[in-house]
Amino acid sequence: MKEVQVINIRGGRILDETTDAQGRLADIHIAGGVITEVVDAGSKLPKADIDLDATNCFVSPGFVDLHVHLREPGREESETIETGSRAAALGGFTAVVAMPNTEPSQDSRIVVEFVRAQGERAGLCEVIPSACITVGRAGQALAPYGELRDAGVTLFTDDGNGVQDPLLMRRALEYARDLDITLAQHCEVSSLTVGAVMHEGSCCSHLGLPGWPAIAEELMVHRDIELVRLTGSRIHFLHLSTERSVEMVRHAKAEGLPITAEATPHHFTLTDEALRSFDPVFKVNPPLRTPADIAALKEGLRDGTIDAIATDHAPHASHLKEQPLDQAPPGMLGLETALSLSLSELNMDAQAVVAALSWKPARIAGVGDRHGRPVAVGESANLAIFDPTCEWVVDRDVLASKSKNTPYHGRTVCGKVRHTVFSGQVVVRDGVAQR
Ligand code: DOR
Question: Least packed by Cβ within 10 Å: which of 53, 75, 107, 359?
């Protein structure tokens, strides 16, 4: 049984969709999982069991990550739903969408229900299971959308694989439209990336490594924009990484097509030059690209072409990740560093960063009724309380994830989550997970 917590949060500035970019100084009272009072800073509040100090902090709606790999069921040596949820809470996330490339994959009601139940058991954030577009993510037959939708799934993806067959993708979009679900595409034409380990460009030629061309992503972005135009269904593009992809999405949105997109912190902070180290920690799918691509992603986030910052948190146990580049699996950790990297590198104000981390992804994930909400009386208490100026050094050995594959080990970043409140419970207090 969930214990009932009565919480006061004092000294912070509320930052949400209704405030201006500076936020608004106010104190907050939470009881029974709900915000029950918001008063002028320093005013009297009812007594609480827990007093959270928010001095120098923003108090914002909790973050929502559209893209995490929690590895359970099947790959628990790399992460579990509990350890991944703890990393999420420490990063200020109150909801995460669990990608379906588990073993078995999330293409049946029973696996989806298992993932949700494990999330509830951990109690650190809401774990929202996604489900596969195709059975086993094999790209051959459509997954049972009706059954999965009835089990509460709203986001479907074969992430890790793109849906290669245009006819199958057309049919998937037609069903998605009729069932009012969202498809999220991993844009990669796989015949163009066989054996690839890094971005195809001058750096990869110099190193003599097989390249991963930008066009492999862009062809699928282009195809799917045309399929959306044909079917009228909506689509979400996962982890966009190239300048041309951003441009195509910008044009498609200007035409009014129902498209949303995300970018990851690693794609807007690191380039293919990192691979000169031959360190597999920098291998990721899609690969790290060029400074021009980074500039385009940042501009896309600034002008709203890219709706959301999503981490693609992809833990891999050391014995898997620390293999030669060609054998190491792609992917890197992201949950505990996303806010800091976004605040440090994007040149956007904190409110615009929180929009891309909170209310915009909340709506895409279909949880906008309880996450990404204004910090106001009557709303569910799902909150991130963070100090935007606190500097800290990323240390892979103190991250909560079960794996250590962060590419930011040793980097000084700015902005830190101090407390996280999930469903009216303090799950992170003074930077320490409470469960
Ligand atoms: O780098 C990646 N790793 N990209 C993906 O799309 C899948 C992910 C994983 O599951 O490790």
Answer: 53
Beta strands in 192-282 (DSSP E): 198-199, 211-212, 235-237, 259-263
CATH code: domain 62-365 is 3.20.20.140
Strand partners, 95: 64, 126
Q: Using most ligand atoms within 8 A of CB, pick from 132, 161, 275, 312 the residue to mutate for ligand 1.
A: 312
Q: How far is the CA of 99 from the centre of ligand 1 (A)?
A: 9
Q: How far is the CA of 131 from the centre of ligand 1 (A)?
A: 16
Q: What pLDDT, in 10s, does the model give residues 416-429? A: 999 999 999 999 99
Decide: 329 in ligand 1 pocket, CB within 6 A. Answer: yes
Distances (CA, A) of 337 to 311, 317, 354, 356: 9, 19, 14, 15
Right CATH for 7-59+377-388+411-433 from 3.20.20.70, 3.40.630.30, 2.30.40.10, 1.20.120.80: 2.30.40.10
Span 118-161, pLDDT tens digits: 999 999 999 999 999 999 999 999 999 999 999 999 999 999 99
Determine contact, residues 52/7, Cβ cutoff 8 Å: yes
Domain ranges within the chain, ordered by starting residue: 7-59+377-388+411-433, 62-365
Q: For tokens 């058991």, what's the residue?
A: 121
Q: Looking at residue 3, what is its pLDDT?
A: 75
- Pocket flag, ligand 1, residue 101 (CB < 6 Å): yes
The reply to whether ligand 1 has any atom less than 6 angstroms from the CB of 186 is yes
The C-alpha atoms of residue 267 and residue 282 are separated, in whole angstroms, by: 11
Query: 81-101, pLDDT tens digit by residue?
Result: 999 999 999 999 999 999 999
Asked whether residue 192 carries a pLDDT value surpassing 80, the answer given is: yes
By CB neighbour count within 10 A (0-12 exposed, 13-18 middle, 19+ buried), where does 159 fall? buried
Residues contacting residue 85 through CB under 8 Å, at least 6 positions apart:
70, 96, 119, 122, 123, 124, 125, 127
Model confidence pLDDT, tens digit, residues 344-372? 999 999 999 999 999 999 999 999 999 99
The alpha carbon of 159 and the centre of ligand 1 are apart by a number of angstroms equal to 7
